[in-house]
């Protein structure tokens, strides 16, 4: 007599799972509401709601808490989202892997980069890689550090270069360089151009900063530096992109943090002015992050290996930018 399969048996889920439902769920998990997900997918709201209901029926679990003012993943939804990202990454890479088997294309490299990555060592590696592999193609996408790591987890990026706050045990990390953040103001600011400043002069001044400038996030050293300078508690403007934080500082919106080596030219050009503390700047490490479970094409593996070798051959002192 044939045994009946349980509602959540692996065999039943494997047989009945529809990738399109998982794809819809990934977008739902990254959205603020069903309406938001529907707009991203270019579908109607009822279609997306129906897809979610079908997926919940397939797995036998509620996946999203939905009520007025609340839209968040359940515990089961969090688990499914992580696995769905892995599946999505594998599917996205199929065409690349098949192309490498059937023609002479050396491959495409997708790099996820935090916006503040200014690293001569990485630039040199890119130049050498292109000189030796002129037919390989490359795309660099700028994200917040958290989003960059998510693309690596999903295997939609070859690797990432970004800040790291909490390490995912499924990923690998290698420190690329260390940078130091200082506090700066722009020409409209009343402290601009003054050479006799102390920390007391910064007390209560308005601040602008990065979205990750929080004690519980990747720029914790910058948060502590701001606190020691006794800047006002309220950050009046934020961005995840260095270029926009720089723009707001130069425009005089407030005092803000920037990497010293990135700001050097702007200081020379009188667009930025460094403020105290001068001797206790915030040290922040930037890492290369990759997924050891991802199957890399020839170009991806070549660039990642070259970057690893250059890091191993370069003393940390030469990868520290002040």
From TrEMBL:
Q: Does the keyword section mention DNA-binding?
A: yes
Q: Which SUPFAM superfamilies match?
A: Periplasmic binding protein-like II (SSF53850), Winged helix' DNA-binding domain (SSF46785)
Q: Name one GO cellular component term.
A: cytosol
User: Does the UniProt entry include the keyword S-adenosyl-L-methionine?
Assistant: no
Give residue ranges for domain HTH lysR-type: 17-74
Question: Which controlled-vocabulary keywords does the entry list?
Answer: DNA-binding, Transcription, Transcription regulation
Q: Which InterPro entries match?
A: HTH-type_LysR_regulators, LysR_HTH_N, LysR_subst-bd, WH-like_DNA-bd_sf, WH_DNA-bd_sf
Among CDD domains, the record links this protein to: PBP2_LTTR_substrate
An MF annotation (GO) of this entry:
DNA-binding transcription factor activity
**Domain of life from the UniProt record:** Bacteria
| Protein family membership | Belongs to the LysR transcriptional regulatory family.
Descriptive protein name: HTH-type transcriptional regulator CysL
Q: Which organism is it from?
A: Roseovarius tolerans
Taxonomic placement: Bacteria, Pseudomonadati, Pseudomonadota, Alphaproteobacteria, Rhodobacterales
Which gene specifies this protein's sequence?
cysL
């Amino acid at each position: 007599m044939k045994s009946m399969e349980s509602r959540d048996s692996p065999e039943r889920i494997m047989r009945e799972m529809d990738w399109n439902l998982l794809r819809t769920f990934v977008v739902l998990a990254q959205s603020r509401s069903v309406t938001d997900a529907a707009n991203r997918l270019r579908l109607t709201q009822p279609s997306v709601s129906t897809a979610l209901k079908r997926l919940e029926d397939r797995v036998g679990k509620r996946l999203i808490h939905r009520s007025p003012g609340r839209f968040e993943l359940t515990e089961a939804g969090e688990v499914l989202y992580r696995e769905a990202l892995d599946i999505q990454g594998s599917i996205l890479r199929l065409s690349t892997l098949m192309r490498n088997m059937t023609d002479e294309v050396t491959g495409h490299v997708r790099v996820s980069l935090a916006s503040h990555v200014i690293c001569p060592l990485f630039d040199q590696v890119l130049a050498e890689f292109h000189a030796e592999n002129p037919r390989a193609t490359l795309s660099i996408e700028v994200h917040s550090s958290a989003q960059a790591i998510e693309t690596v987890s999903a295997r939609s990026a070859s690797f990432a270069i970004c800040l790291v706050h909490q390490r995912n045990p499924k990923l690998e990390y290698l420190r690329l360089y260390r940078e130091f953040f200082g506090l700066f103001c722009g020409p409209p600011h009343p402290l601009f151009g003054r050479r006799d400043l102390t920390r007391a002069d910064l007390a209560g001044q308005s601040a602008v900063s990065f979205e990750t400038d929080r004690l519980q996030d990747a720029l914790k050293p910058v948060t502590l530096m701001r606190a020691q300078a006794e800047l006002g508690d309220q950050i009046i403007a934020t961005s995840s992109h260095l270029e926009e934080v720089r723009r707001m500082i130069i425009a005089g919106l407030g005092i803000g943090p920037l990497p010293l080596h990135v700001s050097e030219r702007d200081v020379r050009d009188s667009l930025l002015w460094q403020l105290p503390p001068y001797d206790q700047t915030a040290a922040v490490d930037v890492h290369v992050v990759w997924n050891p479970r991802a199957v890399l094409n020839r170009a991806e593996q070549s660039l990642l290996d070259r970057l690893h070798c250059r890091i191993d051959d370069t003393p940390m002192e030469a990868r520290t930018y002040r």
